[in-house]
Design a protein that fits this description.
There is one protein chain. With about 300 residues, the chain is of the alpha/beta class. The chain has 13 helices and five strands. Helix 1 runs antiparallel to helix 9. This is Rpn family recombination-promoting nuclease/putative transposase. It holds the Pfam family Transposase_31.
Length: about 300
């Protein structure tokens, strides 16, 4: 599945592309010996994509540049969304880092140190190993020929809910809590109701409508929970939050219908049959056909 179509990856990218969330993430999760050397006031997102096609499913190409102990460094936020740990994460990271350095070389810039951060929310434990272990019991005289570098691991299944609840940023707390519990069964997920209500109402008060929209799209597409299933939450949030949730639900239904009709048209089903099947007018189907032709040009 392409990272563009994966709701977990999309949610991560939309979330961590926000400068304020990236700053909060560094403050809350980075080791102090690294965090204290980062000048968050200089943190800047680089609007460029370094990720190659083979890595698109595994890497979110979000790169920030910042002053680090008086020098320039790249802070890379990397999201792994599979339900199992990667066997050789260093190999993926090394290819990613090489893309960064290659781009810098093309622009005649000095090479930067890349701090890669893996955010993992799978169910099994991610066992962090050194790259040296990939090669088995090699003779120590060969060790200088093996690349050795580290990455930061933020494993959500190793973080307690109360720690996330204490995050200073409402957006960071909401995003990480949702990703951590994205595979919960319905009853377990609803245990988060007080937390979700508190954060959604806080974001509403702060007029963060765009992030509320992003949140509800992820809840419906990534966690597969509809409004009906979340009724305990909707009875306790503001009317504006309810309106946003309903708007997102309508948009998703329209997109789903559009994609279904697109597939039927591509398989030669006539507009008349499609209109009858979906209970819509032939004119509506023809409007969709027009949109498809416009988007393909």
């Amino acid at each position: 599945m392409s990272h563009l179509n994966n709701p977990h990856d999309k949610f991560f990218k939309e979330t961590f592309s926000r400068l304020d969330i990236a700053q909060s993430f560094i403050e809350e999760t980075f080791p102090s010996e690294i965090r204290d050397k980062i000048n968050l006031l200089t943190l800047t997102k680089i609007n460029a994509s370094f990720t190659d096609a083979d890595l698109s499913e595994h890497l979110a190409d979000i790169v920030y540049q910042t002053e680090y102990a008086g020098q320039q460094a790249l802070v890379s936020l990397l999201f792994e969304h599979k339900s199992y740990p990667e066997k050789y994460p260093h190999l993926q990271l090394l290819r990613y880092m090489n893309n960064v350095w290659h781009e810098e070389q093309k622009q005649n810039k000095p090479l930067s140190v890349v701090i890669s951060t893996v955010i993992y929310h799978g169910e099994s434990t991610w066992k962090k190993l050194s790259m040296l272990t990939y090669f088995g019991n090699t003779h120590e005289s060969l060790h200088p020929f093996i690349p050795q570098f580290d990455y930061l691991l933020f494993s959500l299944n190793g973080i307690e809910d109360y720690q996330i609840e204490n995050f200073k940023s409402d957006m960071l707390g909401l995003a990480t809590m949702l990703m951590k519990h994205s595979r919960d069964k319905m009853n377990s997920f609803l245990n988060l109701t007080p937390f979700l209500v508190n954060k959604l109402n806080a974001l509403d008060s702060a007029r963060q409508d765009d992030f509320i929209k992003t949140t509800f799209r992820y809840i419906e597409e990534g966690i597969n929970l509809t409004q009906n299933k979340l009724s305990p939450i909707f009875t306790q949030v503001s009317q504006n939050v309810n309106n946003i949730a309903m708007t997102i639900a309508d948009e998703i239904r329209e997109e789903t219908t559009f994609n279904h009709i697109k597939g039927l048209l591509q398989n030669g089903i006539t507009p008349e049959i499609i209109a009858k099947s979906f209970g819509i007018s032939v004119q509506k189907v023809e409007e969709i056909i027009k949109k498809l032709k416009t988007s393909s040009n």
